Amino acid sequence: METAEDMQIDVVIEDAGTSAKELTITISKETVDEKIEMSFGTLQDQAQMRGFRKGRAPRQLLERRFGSDLLIEARGQLIGGAYQKAIADHELRVVGDPVFPEELAEKKLEAGKPFSFTVTIEVVPEFELPSLEGVELKKPMFIIEPDHVASEIVKLRYRLGTPERITGPFEANDRTVGSATVDVEGHEGTFFETEQALLVVPGDEDEGKGQLLGLIIDDLADLVTGKSTGDTIQIETMGPPAHEREELRDKKVSITFVINDAERITPLEAEQVAEQMGLENLSMLEERVKLELETRRDAEQRNAEREQVYEYLLENITLDLPERMSEAQITRTIERQRMEMLYQGADPEDVEKRLAEMRSQTEDQALNRLKLLFIMNEVARKFDIEVTEEEINGRIAGIARQRGERPDQVRNELNKSGAINEVARQIVEHKGADRIVDQAKVTEVPAEEWNAAAQAKVEARRTGKAPAAKKKSTAKKTAKKTEKKTEKKAAKKTTKKTTKKSAKKSGD
C-alpha cells in the first residue's frame, strides 16, 4: 500500500443534521496489516541500536522498544488516508474541519483486525438554482456634474494635506493614536491589546458614531471630543452578533483607550494638488478627476446590478446552512467585502469603518452573506467559471492603483494576511454575477430614485418594517444629503505613512 488510493475501506454515510454527515469508515485487516508491516520494515531499515549494525536490529527487539509509538503513528496515518479516500470516492464537498470522537485517541490498532472509526463532517448544502435568464434589474444612471468634481477635489486637498501634531482639545475629524486594552465578558484576562490603535473623531455626518478596533461605538464623538493627549477614555459596548470572532458575539466589551498622539490635517490649495499630480493647471486637474469619477461610477453601476443579482438569488433559493459554521468562513466573508471595497476605490480608513458597520448587522444579514458564498460557488460551477493568474494580477493592480501603492506591495500584503485567496474568490463571484447581468432585463433609473429606494431598504432592515412609498422630494433630499456627507468626510483623509500603519494594525 503506497498511497491512500490503494487502501481497502468500507464507508457507511448517514445524515447527522442540517448539511451534516456521519461517516463510519472501516479499514480492512489486510490494509491494517500491510501498514503495520510497512512501518516496522521502514523502522528496521533505519534504526540504529547499540550492538547492532544499521538495519540489523531484531524485529522482536524493535517491537518491544518502539512498538507502541509506531502503532500510534500508523493509526494516525491510516485514519487520515482513509478519511481522504472516503471524501474523494463519494465526492463529498466538505465545509470546515472534520470532527472525530474523543475516544478515537484511545482506540488501539491491532494486527490481523480491521479498524473502524466515525467522523462527522459538514457539507455544502444542496439546493437548486432558479432561472438565471431574464432577471429584472435596475441600472442607476448618474451624470458627473461640476459639483461632484469639486467635492472630490476637496477630498484630494485633505488627502494630500499637511498633518500637524496637536495635543487637544480634539474636534471632529482629528486623528488620534493610542494604546488600547480590550476586556470581554466571560474571557479570563486581557482579550486583546495594542499600542497603535487609530481613532478618528466622528464628524457631524457620522451622527456621533465611530469605529475603533473594528467595532462601531455609538457615542464615540461625545467620549472623545474635547479630550487631549494623555487622557484615558473608557468605552463600553456590545460585541456585534455577526462578528467573525465567536468570543465577541453579543458579549459586553470594555475598551480602555489612552491617547498618545494626535494630528489635524491642513488641506492643500487646489492648485497645489494639481502641481503635486504633475498637471499644468486646475482645469487639467478637474478633467482628470472627472474621468476618475466616471470610471468609479461605471464600476458602481455594475456593482449595483450585481447586488440585485445577489438579492434575487437569496430570495429565490431555499438554503439551510450547516449548524457549525466556522469562524474562518465568517472571516472570509468579511475579507471578501474588504477586497470588494478596496477594488472600488474606497479609502482604507472608510473600508475599516464600513466593515465595522457590517459586523454590527443583524444575524440574518450575516447569514445571508454566508449563504451567498455557497450560492455563488454553485453559479460558478454552472457556468464553468475559472480564474486565471492574469485576472488575479489585474485585480491586484486595480487595488494598488486605488491605494496609490505598487502592485508587488499589495500582493505581498495579501500573501502575508492570507487574503490572496479572497481576491480569486471575489473574481469568481463577480464573473458569475456578471454572466447573469449580461442576460438580464435591465431598466435604467435616475440615481435619485435609486438612492431613495436603497435608503428605504436600509431603514426597513433596521426597523423590520416594509419600505415606505417612494416620493420625488425624498429622492432629492437623499441625493443632496449624500453629496453633503461626501464633502464633510474629506476631512478624514491623509497620506501620512505612520497613520496608515496604525490604521492597518487597529483594523486587524
Keywords:
508 residues, alpha+beta, Alpha-Beta Plaits, Trigger factor, domain 2, Chitinase A, domain 3, 3 domains
Unreliable spans are: 467-508
- Helix count, DSSP H or I runs of 4 or more residues: 15
CATH architectural type of the largest domain:
Orthogonal Bundle
CATH domain class name of the largest domain: Mainly Alpha
* Sequence of secondary-structure elements: EEHHEEEHEEEEEHEEHHHHHHHHEHHH
**How is the CATH topology of the largest domain named?**
Trigger factor, domain 2
Class by alpha and beta content:
alpha+beta
Main sheet, how many strands, which sense, barrel?
5 strands, antiparallel
Determine the N-to-C terminus distance: 46 Å
When the domains are counted, the total is: 3
Give the fraction of residues assigned to helices. 40-55%
Could you provide a short overview of the structure?
By secondary structure, the chain is an alpha+beta fold. The chain is built from 15 helices and 13 strands. The strands form four sheets. Strands 6, 7, 8, 11 and 12 form a five-stranded antiparallel beta sheet that branches. A four-stranded antiparallel beta sheet has the order 1-2-4-3.
Verbal overview:
By secondary structure, this protein is an alpha+beta fold. The protein has three domains: 120 residues, Alpha-Beta Plaits; 225 residues, Trigger factor, domain 2, CATH 1.10.3120; 104 residues, Roll (Chitinase A, domain 3), CATH 3.10.50.30. Strands 6, 7, 8, 11 and 12 form a five-stranded antiparallel beta sheet that branches. A four-stranded antiparallel beta sheet has the order 1-2-4-3. Strand 9 and strand 10 form a beta hairpin. Helix 3 crosses helix 6, helix 3 packs parallel to helix 14 and helix 13 packs across helix 14. The C terminus is likely disordered.
